[in-house]
Amino acid sequence: MPPQPCDNTAMTARMPPKAILFDLDDTLWPIAPVIAQAEVTLHAWLAEHAPRVAQQFSIDQLRARRMALLVERPELHVDLASLRRAGLQAAFAELGEDERHLDGAMRHFSAARNAVQLYDDVLPGLLKLKERLVLGTITNGNADLEVVGMAHHFKVSLAAAHFGSAKPDPAIFLEACRVLNVPPSAAVYVGDDLKLDVEGAQRAGLRAVWMNRRGAAALAEAEAHGIAPDAVCATFDELLHWLETQLAD
Question: What is the set of domains in the chain, with CATH numbers?
């Protein structure tokens, strides 16, 4: 049976949590509509400043070219902004566009990519958590918490692009614990991805909560992957309730 919402599934004895770390995209905010809109606005910007690129390649074609580039350069998995820039640079060079516009294109995309909307339960939940635990983030994405306006909530924020390795590599989880001066056994990681977030955090010795906002149908994924989160939560209220049980142990 898959784990039930916010029930313990890993019963090993651990220290009460002292820190809680979060994934960003699809954990604190939905990302798919943000990226979709950012790519639309970027394509419109290209139509004005690099028209040959916009005329030759649709949004879908530019995306397909990035995925092909990622196969050729797998090291770009840890830096999605560099992947996007490299894809644009190749298109500019192929069509003879002025590469001086690359910086402007990336700035335009970044601004739209950071125009996220928090899930309604996130900010109230973080404010309650800050009263008892130290907070941090670990992401494989390229959200800028300063631009988003959330950086002040977190004592540490690690991004794969700056750290040099990405989830599920245990190293990035262990580095966050080191910065916080908290042993992994006293840390909890919360994320939406079973492999990157749950499995990665557990391999590093952290408790891992799967933030499943997609409902009961997604629970079959945990069983299919053979991954057992320490808890499954659909909301921050459920997360807070589960943490109370951990703090009481």
Answer: 19-31+118-248 (3.40.50.1000), 32-113 (1.20.120.1600)
